[in-house]
Amino acid sequence: IALVEMRIEKNEEFSRAETSPLMAADIPDFVGLNYYFPQAELRFRTPFVAAAGTDTVGLTKRRGGVVSYIRRGTLTFSHAEKEHTLPVFGPADTSGGNYLWLPFTDATTGQDSYAGGRYLDIALDAEGMVDLDFNYAYNPLCDYNAEKYNCTLPPAESHLDFAVEAGEKIFGASD
Looking at residue 110, what is its pLDDT? Predict the structure, then answer.
């Protein structure tokens, strides 16, 4: 239910000119974002393994430039009888907020999902566990308005070798 509610709220936000990241020309015909059907097998409960230090990494922006993030830790999960580990980042400059973030690419990247990868926001519970739910994967803002936004690209180590057919599809794609 929470997933459906989130998708409805996001579509409502995108349809209002004052809150939409879409290009002005796209708003009048906007009927909603495209999503994969929710996949229960792409939800994982996994421990967050904090990084030993505070390594700063420079992540590349789509139109050039680099932004600094701190590698905060990793998440490991099993899918299709294979273990996968992804890095989790936090902003080096926390003036805009402090958060955990997981950018990734997968076998759908550039096909059904945005060519610049997708993102997941990460929340730790009181036990240090994460509900890693790829059904919540979303596109960076540059997918909706490449002229206005210059999004951060996932690093090579954030690539999954399988198709994450969950979450948001590329903007404007037909089902």
Answer: 96
Residues 6+ apart with CB under 8 A from 38: 3, 135, 166
Tell me the residue type at 42. Answer: L
d(CA 174, CA 67): 33
Tell me if residue 8 falls in helix, strand or coil: helix
Q: Which two tokens stand for residue 35?
A: 């999503």
Least confident among 50-59, 102-111, 143-152:
50-59
**pLDDT grade for 52, boundaries at 50, 70 and 90:** confident
DSSP secondary structure letters along 84-143: EEEEEEEES-GGG---EEEEEB-TTBTTTB-TT-EEEEE-B-TTSEEEEEGGG-B--GGG
Return d(Cα 7, Cα 49) in angstroms, integer.
29
Nearest alpha-carbon partner for 138 in 123, 118, 115, 110: 118
Question: Is the pLDDT confidence value at 40 over 90?
Answer: yes
